[in-house]
Amino acid sequence: MRVLRDPLGAGGERGRDELAASLAVNIASFLITFNSSALNVALPSIGKEVGADPITMGWVVNGFLLASTALLMPLGRLADIAGRKRTFISGLLIFALSSALSALSNSAWPLVASRALQGVGGAMIFATSVAILASVFPAGRRGRAIGAYSSATYLGLSTGPFLGGLLTHRLGWRSLFLLNVPICSLVALATMRRVKGEWAEARGEGFDLIGSALYAIPLALAIYGISSLPSASAVIPISIGAAGLAAFALREENVEHPILNIALFRHNIAFALSNLAALINYSATFGIGFLMSLYLQFIRGLDPQIAGLILVSQPAAQAAFSPIAGRLSDRVEPRIVASAGMALTALGIAALSLSGEGGDLWIIMAELSIIGLGFASFITPNTAAIMGSVEPKFFGMASSTLATMRLAGQTMSMAIAMMVLSAQIGGARIAPEIFPSLLMGIRNSLMIFSALCAAGTFASLARVKGAGTGDEELR
What we know:
Blueprint lengths: L11 H39 L3 H29 L1 H21 L3 H29 L2 H33 L2 H5 L1 H15 L14 H20 L6 H18 L10 H4 L2 H17 L1 H13 L4 H8 L1 H19 L2 H19 L8 H28 L6 H31 L9 H27 L14
């Protein structure tokens, strides 16, 4: 192991280094999650201006998620070899460039392409942020730093719908992308100048390029195929993707420096089921913002500002209850708390699926708040269960795997929503005459999400007693 960093003294220089790293990582985390949640509110405005149907609007979101999901683990491994700070800075610059290109797009598919490029930058940032904090902060202050990072993430999710709706309503949807350019550029410059040293523990080790290709390309093909259902042609990319991922799994068991340690899944049931539960939970929740933005702005006729204010109910409840869920999971077995959270989410989504063309908006806000409470009750203890099921030497791999489950689940969620909408309205542009079909597609998607959460509750409960408390570690 080789660490390319000169130790700093315990005085002010170390403190400045920690502060600079924390600010850089937290601002980047806030910006990415803010953009993600704000963009859901802006999608109807984007669709009207560039002439996109709901399926194409879904690809504006999915282009980012697909690129991030496919590249997160390979880029995380590359960062360990080439240097985490260098990768983080490169990610910021790519994010800034792609944001400028997105703002300049005048039609749908160039916007989708620039969003995919933005996903590459996002993957580089996702793959290195927590690792940089762990590298800069000593063990005694590391938990507080990671807690601040989580708070920045929740803050971005919570403020995105309202502020994104406000910006879209007042300045137009392009302002959401233009905002990224100066901020990312300044954070990249500050990181270069203020964060000292570099971290590359795997410097000199091999990078499995073939394994990375066998992971990224088939995963992208499989998710693209799922989003193209029910078209018969979707079978081809799904089949190729499944075969490629199987080949990747076989290869990773026989290479010296794998992208993914398959043994974590094969020999650790608690780890495998906790990650499966996370994948299901994100698959059942992320698309809600996209669907409800269409519902509120088209079916209910609200402007982006009001729609964003309603949508903020879910992440606000999530942010408020997450600390309580964390303390609760320290006292009650994590799998019980996480399973109860998954069940509560299923109930909230089922209630939301009953929304019609009328009804009180406060009821929708209450249902979104229930989903937020359930999500918070699941995520914190489930994360504790995952990290508690492995030894410390596997923490980095476990963290990357969980991040991949999150992004893959979010991508799958959008793919499911796009699949159902495609079956319901095809490629029709949104107009009053298709509102009944659009509403039916939204309700059907939500019912599928609720069923997924119900199934995920059983996957969460299936974990052995003690999972996440350190009793079931991979040795």
